[in-house]
Write a structure and sequence with these properties.
The chain has 155 residues and is an alpha+beta fold. The chain contains three helices and ten strands; from the N terminus they run αβββαβββββαββ. The protein is elongated.
């Protein structure tokens, strides 16, 4: 259970995010050589989410190494793949985890993945894809999404 300031912040975030999900972590690396920078946020042990942000946003948010940040990813932007070492993809983010649940309707499915450190990541995929990938509780998968689909927030 969350207590105090952390719980209040998460409640405020949930009210204002709609269908976005979030995870908190600390900035571990910043790359800002061009107009677009990259922020690496460690959200769980061995799980880093990368976000592409403008240099103006980097400055305005006051992002620096070690500053706590919140990453927001809209569930429909997250694709699911089998967790195989040979997986080749152009997606900047490939987060490994274990399926906690898969709720299917005739059209789509919501897949909730445990990514470690008490964090989860949700994906909305087609019911056809969930069936083809044999998504079920306990299965190891990768969540794939591009760094341009990640929003960085600070508290």
């Amino acid at each position: 259970h969350l207590r105090g300031r952390e719980a209040d912040r998460k409640r405020r975030l949930r009210r204002g995010l709609g269908s976005y999900q979030h995870a908190c972590g600390q900035g571990g690396r910043l790359s800002n050589r061009y107009v677009i920078g990259e922020v690496a946020v460690e959200v769980a042990p061995d799980q880093t989410i990368f976000a592409s942000v403008t240099l103006k946003s980097l400055r305005e948010l006051g992002l620096c190494i070690g500053r706590e940040a919140i990453v927001l990813i809209k569930a429909p932007f997250v694709m699911i793949a089998r967790d195989e070492e040979t997986l080749m993809t152009s997606a900047r983010n490939a987060i490994s985890g274990t399926v906690l649940r898969c709720e299917k309707s005739p059209i789509n499915a919501e897949v909730v993945i445990d990514i470690g450190g008490g964090k989860t990541l949700a994906a909305h995929i087609s019911a056809h894809s969930a069936k083809a990938l044999q998504i079920e509780e306990g299965k190891h998968v990768k969540a794939l999404f591009d760094s341009s689909h990640v929003i960085i927030a600070i508290d």
